[in-house]
Model the fold of this input.
Amino acid sequence: MIQRCLLILTGLFSSCVLLFALAQEPADNQKCLQCHGQVFYEYFNEWTEQTERKTMNPFYHVDSIRMMGSVHKAFSCTDCHSPEYETFPHSGELRMEQKYTCMDCHGGDETFAKFNFEGIESAFMESVHFSNSNERFNCWMCHDPHGYQLAQREQESIKDVVHMSNQMCIRCHTDQFEFGLLTNKTPSDLTAIHSWLPNQAHHFNKVRCVDCHTDVQEGILVSHKILPKTDAVRNCVQCHTSNSLLMESLYAHRVKESREESGFVNATILNEGYVIGANRNKTLNVVSIVIFGLTVIGLCIHFILRLILLKKK
Amino acid sequence: MQYSSPDLPLIPFDISVAAHNVAGVCIALTYLVFLVYTRFSRNRIHYQVTWKGLMPRVIKQAMYYVFGVFRKQEPPFPISEDMKFNHLQQITYVMGMYALVPVLIITGLALMFPEVIIDDIYGIGGTLLTALVHVSAGFFASMFLIIHLYFSTMGASLTSNFKSIVDGYHESH
Done:
């Protein structure tokens, strides 16, 4: 009975915390951010009895402005980190604390059902990130919990979505420090390994890494099943065609534009770009084929009549 | 590229893009040569259109192509050193070389370097408009090519005009 009550109270408390977060008012984390939000921070050293000025470890630096715009802005630091951090200097043992993952808060919660966290977790566990990392790969390798923002669902421009998304991959795959958290290997030169890709720079600006390097999955907005590099998309025509792969991935949740009524295939892409082969105008296609056909027929008739005339000579 | 499909892999897409780009650059360079050559040589006289009474002359030539050829009529505007184009050819080549081809080249170069294209033109994507203009101009250029190749067979013999391209001499009918 008591256990049931405790369980209900814990559930109510968690819901309150989450509802509070959803109220969108940023929490007051000034006590932590006065150091962790700065490049340099100062503190009074009781041993030396001096005010010391130090550089904040960049891996412990929190961009407070990004945090104000993030989905977690209403959380206080100690909602996720140990309340013992309120004491300074921080105990060294606190480094050992187990960090929350997305599933600890969002798993099994109907409020976040549309994000399908369970599906994301399953997809991630099938990915090469999980299988090759001895279970060291976690959500925070890609997603910054302090600055996470919804891009696709908030109808940000495709350019911004692509940039935001690709930074998650590039940050790790080009930086020895980040890459070294998982392996002793040196990160490869992305430009060199993608040298087979025509108009490489344009592709990197207009298409996300995950559009080629993941399997499209039902019910998940952004696929988390990162494929081995040998399984990445290399056939241009998978995107540059009327049945474009991009419509199931990058443009999957865009509102279709009214241009579709004028006969453009994959019209939603046209809001912010143009993909050869994927954007055709059906009317123009038909008209051009008809004109071309009639011209060729006319010329053939002309030629045949000339040949008949020649034979008569 | 415009009609690419996984079900119809005629030419690998990346190869067709590369070939298209190379062809485009070659056209741009040879067009520059044409511009300079035509401007500073006697060739320019063939591109100087006499607009007065042009339409009746064009129609007369068109009627010759459609009917006159089969009635064994003489060409209404025979080729001479001062007039290597008949009026229908002349207006077509002038429109082609001074309107169609420049549009094709400019839009093609813009698509090769899409960062120079204005993002939004009264609510319509700049790349879309540029692509539409380029594809349409390319279509008309393709039509011109087919018709031009066919009409090249309308010399004294089927191949005489092609010989003229090589040796520079016109063979009379």
Notes: The beta strands of chain B are 120-121, 124-125. The mean pLDDT of chain B is 89. Residues 29 and 109 of chain B are 12 Å apart (CA to CA). Chain B touches chain A at residues 1-6, 9, 12-14, 17-18, 65-66, 69-70, 72, 114, 125, 127-128, 131-132, 135-136, 139, 142-143, 146-147, 150, 153 (CB under 8 Å).
